[in-house]
């Protein structure tokens, strides 16, 4: 399938590490050394997961090479819902005023982007849709505690939209060659590595080390797997876009793959961990940087544990 347009939305408010230095004594140097993060975006009081999703979609409409009313499937993805009944996908459908089409929302932590795309792949394969919209949005700061010295400084907010078709629409389309996803709930401390219980304190990360260990196993493994089953090797890869959880994790993924750092795409330094939106935002940020024929590996790992990889050709 093909990506016809990509767009994203970031809240205006920038939260620097100075905020956490004042709040709980974590220095800028300490945070940067351990996470790579210098600043992150925070949704305004009037914003939420649904409003950011809508804004991300609106940003992409001018880029769309066909009438928006041709969209016949909307899939939303988030693990920080504003409303568990009126999902972000329904909010987007209402804003676009496209009636009576399949509207689905999925959640598998920070891997949700790839699960959402895989749902679209299934609809396309079954001939149940031909034009789709995937929208990913996470309002992490609504659930995070800035005073938490373990994880409070990690989170940022943002959203992105990918407009997709079963067949190529224009020469500028990016081809999604393949997607794989998986659950790793049997690995390590998957059930407690990082959790979000809205009625029980929000984000908690009691086993960050275990998350790190498994992330740097599963993301390289999934990357190799998707290349192998498509007859490619790491030498064919032009760019790697891993889940934006921690810059040290991204560096370790590149080391495990034996690829140079100049092939790494990263936005965690100035956006923080934007959840399942992070990789999609990264694709949007770099879409004009990619050369025709470039091979991009997107790989994810999330709480639960979940993992995945996607092979994209520019």
Automatic annotation (TrEMBL):
Domain Beta-ketoacyl-[acyl-carrier-protein] synthase III C-terminal: from-to ranges: 228-313
Any one GO MF annotation of this record:
3-oxoacyl-[acyl-carrier-protein] synthase activity
InterPro entries from the UniProt entry: ACP_syn_III_C (IPR013747), ACP_syn_III_N (IPR013751), Thiolase-like (IPR016039)
Domain called Beta-ketoacyl-[acyl-carrier-protein] synthase III N-terminal: residue spans: 106-177
**One annotated GO biological process:** secondary metabolite biosynthetic process
Pfam families from the UniProt entry: ACP_syn_III, ACP_syn_III_C
The protein's UniProt keywords, in alphabetical order, are: Acyltransferase, Transferase
Cross-referenced SUPFAM superfamilies: Thiolase-like
The identity of this protein, by name, is: 3-oxoacyl-[acyl-carrier-protein] synthase-3
Q: Which organism is it from?
A: Siphonobacter aquaeclarae
Supply the source organism's classification: Bacteria, Pseudomonadati, Bacteroidota, Cytophagia, Cytophagales
